[in-house]
Design a protein that fits this description.
It is a single chain. This protein is an alpha/beta fold. About 40% of the residues lie in helices and about 20% in strands. Strands 1, 2, 3, 4, 7, 8, 9 and 10 form an eight-stranded mixed sheet that branches. A two-stranded parallel sheet has the order 5-6. It is globular and about 55 Å long.
Length: about 325
């Protein structure tokens, strides 16, 4: 009997270990390969696999309008989104009109990033106002947040997309590729996005950013069209692809890691603490994480934070109600 009990115990341990080794990977939803979100998600996944016993993987989709509802439904554990689209998704407004994702939760800010319209280096276009009547990407049906980015950037100089000749594009990656191929006169390019660097390398003379106006009216117009956005000044640097004018005024938005409400508290807690304690590893995996500041992960936003994240931030001493 004792022998049978020992064998049974060993079998249970074996089954337990087997179950742990075959645990379902935690998936991070991102925009398409070549996008900033894909590179960020890949870096986070790599570090989590290296530093924890969890299995992570990245799943690229056409845009946030596709994968955010999957997070809400529990089909994906995590995802990447800017503060504006997270707000739109949670409240069911903007690009998520009448489709609230009330199970969406914030994990924390990964980085803040800058975006503006870019034009071929030799283009005579020098300002947002010069885009009037030009061929511009429009629609962004698979990555709707860039519709609002576009509105915000154009509004900084008193324009709307109706002042341009609209060229339908499914997402910003397609729009940047169209810029590289000369099919549009300008396109929105997130700072240091892989697809932007690829276009820079393939275009004869590359591309450069257009500087936005930075008046009080411009700032108000940007925030109205893209909640939580702000205008910041960026100076040329070899690490900032496409920044030529000094300064170049761009739209800046916080980029968040998101989770579903049903993701285990321990999984979210471990993700936050692993990120906070491994900035160097994240930066080595993707250079944009050089801008990552663990002390600024908990920022005010209408979307609730996941309890696992709150626990981590309280331990880190950065949580305020």
């Amino acid at each position: 009997m004792k022998k049978l009990t020992a064998v049974a115990s060993m079998l249970l341990i074996s089954l337990s270990l087997s179950s742990q080794s075959q645990a379902k990977p935690l998936t991070i939803g991102t925009n398409p390969q070549g996008s900033l979100f894909y590179s960020m998600g890949t870096a986070i996944s790599k570090v989590m696999v290296e530093k924890t016993d969890k299995q992570f993987r990245v799943a690229p989709y056409a845009g946030s309008s596709t994968f955010i509802p999957m997070i809400n439904a529990g089909r994906l554990a995590f995802g990447m989104a800017n503060g504006a689209e997270a707000t739109f998704a949670y409240q069911g407004v903007g690009s998520f009109d009448k489709r609230p994702n009330d199970k969406l939760r914030l994990v924390g800010v990964a980085i803040a990033t800058q975006t503006s319209f870019a034009v071929p280096t030799e283009s005579p276009i020098q300002s947002i106002a010069d885009l009037k009547g030009k061929n511009l990407p429009a629609g962004y049906n698979s990555g709707r947040t860039f519709h609002y980015y576009s509105n915000a950037a154009l509004a900084a100089d008193g324009l709307t997309i109706e002042d341009a000749t609209k060229v339908p594009m499914p997402n910003f990656v397609s729009a940047i590729n169209a810029l590289g191929e000369g099919r549009v006169d300008a396109a929105l390019v997130p700072m240091n996005a892989g697809v932007g660097k690829k276009a820079m390398a393939t275009m004869k003379n590359g591309w450069r950013y257009i500087s936005l106006s930075q008046s009080d009216d411009a700032t108000a117009a940007v925030e109205k069209n893209l909640p939580s956005a702000r205008i910041v000044s960026v100076s040329p640097d070899k690490s900032k692809t496409g920044v030529v004018a000094d300064p170049t005024n761009m739209i800046e938005v916080d980029f968040y890691v998101l989770a579903g409400a049903d993701v285990a508290d321990d999984d979210v807690y471990e993700l936050v603490m692993t990120m906070a304690n491994n900035k160097d590893a994240l930066s080595n995996a993707f250079a944009a994480f050089n801008r990552y500041d663990p002390s600024k992960m908990a920022q005010k936003n209408p979307v609730p934070y996941h309890p696992g994240a709150i626990k981590a931030y309280k331990e880190m001493g950065i949580w305020t109600e």
